[in-house]
């Protein structure tokens, strides 16, 4: 099939399905193609930006629970998934909701900081395409292994692709074997310049990690489960941009953090809009630490997490 003809049938399938509301089997019948072909064309339409799907995010801000969290923690805006009984799995709604919120927040000419992780990659995977200009997407921390279905640097590059933006990855490991080696790498001009650029970002997107066996710093090989357990006994409470924070949200004084190649947490807090997304209920206590440390101005979370935040200690 010629490329122009293939493009036309993708447009036609998307038009019939999304605009006219036909079912996939009805589209197949109308275009005289198989239902499997319809599904393929609709996926191509979404991936190429022919079709963009957005969420009316204001619907997730109007309820009392959002306002209570905003007031309690001094946040600019909070979006809650699962605030009613109609949502079967609120956590499953988080990536699409967060992607829609993020697209509302970013604008042409801005610099956006991204810290990789499973939640952020889930967001990138469902993010609609935006035709922006002059946007730079900056990775906030170094890279490690890929225990998931993606490489850490793919979070940055996939979001950049969706935004029609330039991606700037950290071509350095998240953690070095010695403090001396980490110090030397930070002094390298290309690494130092990227670290210094973080404070100039207009917007950041990240989640907060846990300190348990499922933590991405364990799965990626930055720490062993035993090492992470010891950090918890030393006061560790969560992970922000690959670094361990305590319950007050301060950088934990530990050898691991001194060996990490990541944005200075003080610079991270200079970013004016910091979108923090929490999908799993297990991240409640790490989220408390992140909020205490000032790493969040905008929050996307489930109703269960929001209620946990508001509960008395």
Describe this structure as you would to a colleague:
This protein is an alpha/beta fold and 313 residues long. It has two domains: 3-48, Arc Repressor Mutant, subunit A, CATH 1.10.10; 57-310, Rossmann fold, CATH 3.40.50. The chain is built from 15 helices and nine strands. It has helices at 3-19, 24-31, 35-48, 64-73, 90-105, 118-126, 152-163, 179-186, 189-197, 216-219, 225-233, 255-259, 265-268, 284-292, 303-310; strands at residues 77-81, 111-114, 136-139, 166-168, 203-206, 236-240, 243-246, 273-277, 298-302. Strands 1-9-8-5-2-3-4 form a seven-stranded parallel beta sheet, sandwiched between helices. It has a two-stranded antiparallel sheet with strand order 6-7. Helix 5 (90-105) packs across helix 6 (118-126). The chain is globular. The chain starts with a helix and ends with a helix.
Terminal-residue CA separation: 64 Å
Let me know the largest β-sheet.
Answer: 7 strands, parallel
Question: Fraction of residues in helices?
Answer: 40-55%
**Total DSSP helices:** 15
Structural class: alpha/beta
Summarize the structure.
The chain is built from 15 helices and nine strands.
List the helices and strands and how they pair.
Blueprint (H helix, E strand, L loop, with lengths): L2 H17 L4 H8 L3 H14 L15 H10 L3 E5 L8 H16 L5 E4 L3 H9 L9 E4 L12 H12 L2 E3 L10 H8 L2 H9 L5 E4 L9 H4 L5 H9 L2 E5 L2 E4 L8 H5 L5 H4 L4 E5 L6 H9 L5 E5 H8 L3
Parallel strand pairs: 1-9, 2-3, 2-5, 3-4, 5-8, 8-9
Antiparallel strand pairs: 6-7
Helix pairs in contact: 1-2, 1-3, 2-3, 4-15, 5-6, 6-7
């Amino acid at each position: 099939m010629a490329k122009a003809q293939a493009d036309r049938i993708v447009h036609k399938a998307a038009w019939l399905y999304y605009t006219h509301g036909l079912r996939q089997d009805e589209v197949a019948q109308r275009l005289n193609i198989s239902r499997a072909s319809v599904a393929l064309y609709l996926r191509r339409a979404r991936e190429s930006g022919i079709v963009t799907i957005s969420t009316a995010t204001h619907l997730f801000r109007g309820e009392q629970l959002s306002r209570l969290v905003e007031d309690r923690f001094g946040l600019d805006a909070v979006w809650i998934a699962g605030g009613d009984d109609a949502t079967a799995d609120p956590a499953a709604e988080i990536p699409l909701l967060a992607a829609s919120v993020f697209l509302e927040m970013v604008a042409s000419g801005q610099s956006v900081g991204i810290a990789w992780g499973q939640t952020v990659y889930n967001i990138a995977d469902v993010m609609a395409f935006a035709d922006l200009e002059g946007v730079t997407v900056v990775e906030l921390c170094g890279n490690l292994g890929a225990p998931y279905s993606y490489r850490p640097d793919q979070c940055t590059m996939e979001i950049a692709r969706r935004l029609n933006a330039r991606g700037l990855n950290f071509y350095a490991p998240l953690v070095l074997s010695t403090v001396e080696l980490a110090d030397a790498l930070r002094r390298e001009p290309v690494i130092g310049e990227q670290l210094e650029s973080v404070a100039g970002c207009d917007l950041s997107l990240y989640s907060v990690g846990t300190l348990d066996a499922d933590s991405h710093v364990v799965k990626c090989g930055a720490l062993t489960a035993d090492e992470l357990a010891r950090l918890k006994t030393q006061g560790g409470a969560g992970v922000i941009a690959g670094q361990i924070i305590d319950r007050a949200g301060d950088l934990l004084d530990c050898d691991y953090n001194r060996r990490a190649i990541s944005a200075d947490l003080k610079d991270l807090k200079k970013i004016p809009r910091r979108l923090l997304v929490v999908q799993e209920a297990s991240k409640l206590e790490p989220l408390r630490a992140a909020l205490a440390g000032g790493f969040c101005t905008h929050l996307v979370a489930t109703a269960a997490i929001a209620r946990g935040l508001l509960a008395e200690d």
